[in-house]
Design brief:
alpha/beta, 16% strand, single chain, 9 helices, seven-stranded mixed sheet
Length: 229
């Protein structure tokens, strides 16, 4: 018998792209891959909650914005699946590629798979956040990664039960990779044709990456001081 699969999608003010992402997951060849769909509306001020209700088995609604890490942490604790899949809300039609992410965990014996996305279509940052994250993960866990910030992941429930939960903020993926590698879980990275919203070299893009840099740095310091045993 195949293990059950829960897809968990954190969403904040995603009323435009979230319905496209969720519709893609209901295509017949995709729908047979999963058993439960949870959306965590992270205090949105738009119609994200109502859009999610049209598709999801359950919508968890935060009264205020708590951040991506808190959304994913609350989501997996409510999920019933043996395999948990984290997807971003803005994947749009490319969400139908989720099977490629699930397969290494469901069929090939890996504990966690991480999607390596195609190169961005326009110039974004200068690689500072990605470089900090990749180097920090290697120094703290010995694991070399090409996708340190990828939020598209499938993992066995036991991984999160063993490490005790997820980091907060934008450092959630970095913390998860460090803890999983330190705990001896088998991790793989695979190329998947997911696409999501890209930030450019404008004020909002630099602001976003600045927040990421600070959050990743805090996560690395925390993992250095409080390693998972």
């Amino acid at each position: 018998m195949k293990p059950s699969v829960t897809i968990i999608i954190p969403a904040w003010n995603e009323e435009a792209l979230l319905p496209v992402t969720l519709s893609a997951l209901y295509k017949p060849h995709v729908r047979r891959l999963w058993d439960e769909l949870l959306v965590i509306d992270d205090g949105s001020g738009d119609r994200t909650y109502f859009q999610a209700q049209r598709f999801a088995d359950r919508v968890i609604r935060h009264g205020r914005n708590l951040g991506k890490g808190a959304s994913l942490d609350n989501g997996w604790r409510e999920a019933k699946g043996e395999i948990l899949v984290f997807l971003d809300a803005d994947l749009g039609e490319t969400a139908e590629r989720v099977g490629e992410l699930i397969r290494p965990v469901r069929d090939d014996g890996y504990d966690m798979s991480i999607a390596r996305l195609p190169s961005p279509r326009r110039k974004g940052g200068f690689g500072l956040v990605r470089g900090l994250a990749a180097r920090g993960i290697y120094l703290l866990s010995g694991y070399r990664t090409h996708a340190p910030l990828s939020g598209q992941r499938a993992l066995r429930r036991e991984v999160l039960e063993k490490i005790g939960g997820l980091s907060r903020g934008f450092g959630v993926e970095v913390g998860l990779t460090i803890d999983a590698a330190r705990s001896g879980f088998a991790i793989c990275e695979i190329a998947v044709g997911f696409r999501h919203r890209e930030t450019g070299r404008d004020w909002s893009g630099f602001l976003h990456r600045g927040k990421q840099f600070v959050s990743v740095g805090r996560t690395l310091v925390h993992k250095w001081r409080h390693p998972v045993c």
